[in-house]
Every structure is written in structure tokens, then in C-alpha cells.
Amino acid sequence: MDLIPATAAPRVPVVDRAGRARGEFPVHRIYCVGRNFAEHAREMGAAAPSSKAERGVPTFFMKPADAIVIDGVVPYPRATQLLHHEVELVVALGRDAPAGGIAAEDASALIFGYGVGLDLTRRDLQNAAKAKGLPWDTGKGFDHSAPLSALLPASEAGDLSTAGIALDVNGERRQQSSLDHMLWNVADILHELSKLYALRAGDLIFMGTPSGVGPLLPGDHFRACIDGLPELQGSITATR
Ligand code: MN
Ligand 1 center to residue 43 CA distance, Å? Predict the structure, then answer.
């Protein structure tokens, strides 16, 4: 018997290529990759590897599962003066990884589908934490910090390895790149994550953002696209 009201798992709509509803994807955890595009690492003032050979180990952080926003309505978060957009490929897992982790060459078997999301960031809080060598949680893992498109099953998405990724704000292009610029591809990231965590069906992975991150303000409209995937549209509303 629950002694308090239970919180339902957030659910993301799943569509086919024609946009027809196919059901829902219940979310378990949200993992995020930091500094996965060299040009974004550099714009953040971090040392960026110039080649995959120099990439070291990936940077990971998490958001709470209920940070997901599926209707595009994002209230401007409290406690910040600098909300930033980061457009990212989102990978949805449909199977648990085996005990002991998964090799990169086997990782595609875990993937349920893909979407496009925003890793919304309270950049002022993140920068203050970085300056003190403290964790990024308050800058990254806040309410409504993960707006996400509908998911497209992997079987219908085809090869995304060179797909274009872009973000427009109020009709103006802010971010644009190609997924082949990621320092760590999806298979590599699933392998690395599986060394650290028990990956489960229901997990989402935000794969990191290209350069061009910048501020969002109340009233702004955003449109995020990855070639071949459902798009994400929404807007920032007044602080709740
Ligand atoms: Mn990010």
C-alpha cells in the first residue's frame, strides 16, 4: 500500500514515419553526454580534442526522468538569469544491457528509437559550479529541462550517422551541424555508459550539442530538427 501519492513515469509519444501515433515510451532515466562536439567544447572554454584519438573518456551527467516536456511548453526556470538551449540527438533504449555491459558493436540491439531534444541549461548556475569544481546538477537537472520530440522507432529511422541537426529560435538559425561531428557516436556512448550504469529499457541518452548555444527568453519559440526524425517545436513561457 502506497502511503503517499505515487508519481507516474513520464511517457513520450512514439510515431511512425508518417507521424501516426504508435504508442508511448515510458521513461526510466535520462543520461546526458557533455562536450561531444569539439566546437561546442571550445565555445565553453574547455580543452577540446582535435581528433577522436585524443578524446579521452566522455563526460556524463543526468537529468531527472520527470524533466521531460512533451508538449513543448517550457516555463522559464526559476533561479537563473541565463537559460541556454542545446539541441541534441536523443537515443531511447528498448532493452536492458546485459550484466557486465555491452560492446560497441552490439550496442545497436539496445536501441528502441530516436528523437530530438533540448538539453536546457541554467548556464549561470553551471558556470558558477564549474568555477568551483562543483557538480553541475542545479545547472542541468531542473524541472522542465528536457523538452523532447516524439520518438521514431530505429527500424524506421535509417542511418542517422551523417544526419543534419539544427535549432531555430524565432525563425532564426542558432545551431547547425552534422551528427558525424560527434566525438563519441551512439554505439561508443552506450558502451561507455554501460561500464558505469546498468542501462535499462526506458533510458534516454541526450548525445551532446554542437556549437551555437545561446539564451532563451520568455516568449521565444524554438524549432529543433534532425534529418529524418520528428521535429520538436515549443516555446518558453513566464516563470511558473
Ligand atoms: Mn548538452
Answer: 13
Please check whether residue 122 is in contact with residue 139, taking contact to mean a CB–CB distance below 8 angstroms.
Answer: yes
CA of 8 to the centre of ligand 1 (A): 26
Is 10 inside any structural domain?
no
Give the count of domains, the chain.
Answer: 1
CATH number for the domain including 190? 3.90.850.10
Q: How far is the CA of 170 from the centre of ligand 1 (A)?
A: 21
For residue 1, how far is its CA from the centre of ligand 1 (angstroms)? 39
How many angstroms is it from 209 CA to the middle of ligand 1?
5
Distance (Å, rounded) from C-alpha 65 to C-alpha 9?
A: 8
Q: Give a yes or no: residue 216 inside a domain.
A: yes
List, for residues 91-111, the tens digit of each pLDDT value: 999 999 999 999 999 999 999
**Strand segments (E) across 170-209:** 172-178, 204-206
Which pLDDT score is estimated for 240? Answer: 78
Res 54: pLDDT? 82
Cα(86) to ligand 1 centroid in Å equals 5
pLDDT-based confidence at 46, cuts 50/70/90? Answer: confident
Sort residue 144 into left (φ over 0), alpha (ψ -120 to 50) or beta: left
pLDDT score recorded for residue 49:
78
Does pTM surpass 0.90? yes
Which residues partner with 88 through β-bridges?
117
- pLDDT tens digits, 48-73: 777 777 888 999 999 999 999 999 99
Summarize the confidence of residues 179-189 as an average pLDDT. Answer: 97
Going from the Cα of 126 to the center of ligand 1, the distance in angstroms, rounded, reads 12
Instruction: Tell me, in angstroms, the distance from the centre of ligand 1 to residue 147's CA.
Output: 12
CA distance 230 to 22: 13
